[in-house]
Amino acid sequence: MAYETLIVETRGNVALVTLNRPQALNALNSTVLKELKAAYAAFHADEAIGAIVITGSERAFAAGADIKEMQSLQFADIYKSDFISGWDDIAKARKPVIAAVSGFALGGGCELAMMCDFIIASETAKFGQPEITLGVIPGMGGSQRLTRAVGKAKAMDLVLTGRMMDAAEAERSGLVSRVVAPERLLDEALAAAEKIASLSQPSVMMAKEAVNRAFETTLEEGLRFERRLFHSLFATDDQKEGMAAFVEKRKPAFNHR
Ligand code: CAA
């Protein structure tokens, strides 16, 4: 399928999505959302895809929701259509998604990165929630996901002042998992995605579900949820294969990859 705002490729068992609106620093408009939803649906339907990498350009991962598209919208209309709620579908991807971020990840761009399972950043990355400087607030999860990622003090600082933080500060704060040189960014993200895609898909998807449950429930319930998933994996042939391969000192050949 041809996309207007995305470049979609597959690299082995990994899907690579590149946001492609260079004239607007990859600002996220309704076409980007519609196309990302279609791309994600195709990745989930494709058994061979084990992980997804989403990236932007060297200058910008994405500079936010599209301000030009939003500027004249009226309250009643956006309330009735529940404007931007469609991004929840992107956050609910069941296969693992890695954000490879270079340059600006602002507003909706930072929020899109935070919808991914983890963020690998280039040394040039800049994260922020500048919506307050436009007379609004984050609308795609920034006040919630940023706070869970970096804690109240740093989230308040960023959301109330609209300032940007660089990659080093983002790594110190726990927003990103790794920072690499700009020229290493894509290779690093693709290598992580390839590793994930080489593993047993049910265990990968359950691991993702289990970690995400930590944000939704009590410790007691989360531990029970994790243990039940752990038990259920013993019903898969991949558990037998993974453990046999360890004991026999060989590489596992998983069926569900
Ligand atoms: N929406 C629409 N267009 C955008 C955009 C956005 N979020 N960000 C950048 N652009 C456009 C600019 O308008 C400009 O287009 P023209 O050449 O046609 O004027 C082009 O991209 C290049 O941008 P700049 O000339 O501004 O580039 P710069 O290097 O001087 O500045 C920047 C870069 C600091 C990222 C600056 O573009 C900027 O501040 N962008 C807006 C960031 C922002 O406020 N994001 C939050 C959006 S609201 C939101 O996301 C709501 C939500 O939570 C759902």
TrEMBL record:
Catalytic reactions on record:
a (3S)-3-hydroxyacyl-CoA = a (2E)-enoyl-CoA + H2O; a 4-saturated-(3S)-3-hydroxyacyl-CoA = a (3E)-enoyl-CoA + H2O
Q: Which domain of life is it from?
A: Bacteria
Q: Which CDD domains match?
A: crotonase-like
Q: Which GO terms describe its molecular function?
A: enoyl-CoA hydratase activity
Query: Which InterPro entries does the entry mention?
Result: ClpP/crotonase-like_dom_sf, Enoyl-CoA_hyd/isom_CS, Enoyl-CoA_hydra/iso, Enoyl-CoA_hydra_C
Q: Which GO terms describe its biological process?
A: fatty acid beta-oxidation
User: Does the keyword section mention Disulfide bond?
Assistant: no
Q: Name one Pfam family in it.
A: ECH_1
Q: Keywords for this entry?
A: Fatty acid metabolism, Lipid metabolism, Lyase
Give the EC number(s) under which this enzyme is classified.
4.2.1.17
Function (record text): Could possibly oxidize fatty acids using specific components.
Q: Which family does it belong to?
A: Belongs to the enoyl-CoA hydratase/isomerase family.
UniProt protein name: enoyl-CoA hydratase
